[in-house]
Design goal:
With 283 residues, the chain is of the alpha/beta class. It has 2 domains: 199 residues, Glucose-6-phosphate isomerase like protein, domain 1 (Rossmann fold); 77 residues, Helicase, Ruva Protein, domain 3. The N and C termini lie far apart (63 Å).
Length: 283
Amino acid sequence: MKMDELSTLEVLKLINSEDQKVAIAVQNELPAVAAVVEELVSRFKAGGRLFYVGAGTSGRMGVVDAAECPPTFGTPPEMVQAIIAGGDRAVFQAQEGSEDQPEDGASAIEAKKLTANDMVIGIAASKRTPFVLGALERAHTLKAYTVLLTTNPRSEVTFPFLSNAICPVVGPEVLMGSTRMKSALAQKMVLSMITTTAMVKLGKVFENMMVDLQQTNLKLVERSKRIIMLATNCDYDRAAALLKQSGNHVKSAIVMQLRGLDKDGAHELLAKADGHVKRALAL
């Protein structure tokens, strides 16, 4: 209540002390997160997609996570998608009135031609954003798996159209009502956990390295070479040669080096191992 009387450092300490509560709130929800991840992996394997739906800051958290999946894990853009109330404009500039119509959320979902293999995660700190609830209700009627990510207590999340809910209770914001703070931080943590863990389970990670990254710029080309060097204990020149010989496929380059195979042989092993490098090396 006296934040406006504090020094700069004191305000920062206050915000930081509140932020530290977020990790504990998320930790308390890990069983629910795990259940969602396991469901998501099975749906991805069946050709399903993940959709994030949100408004304002919550919507932007979904946009950020969806946008990072293709370069980090080599996934097609349609595999993880974000829907934000107000459309693309809302990513850069607030469109406050756009979240108030549940039918707009329903229409956005209908446009994606959902199947029963898809998952929709609605993101709403308040738990009651009409755009998000409209999207989730419509997704439920289309037999998709529906999840609400909210920073309200689970006891208050009673919507009949939900398959599951993730509810990290972060407490009041240090700036009253500003859910761009602790609530957004919790959302960011949970969404990163969901996609990262799902991609691990899909074989897109070897040890702790992103071996399906897209080499869309020079930085990522160099990172690919470094991953090959670390994974196989080879030098830079050998890593560069392997990357070229593999058709710029990091996983194949690793298997080629460690098993003494050509590109086709590495591809065959990886196919038998469902894309998991460690399993391929064990065959």
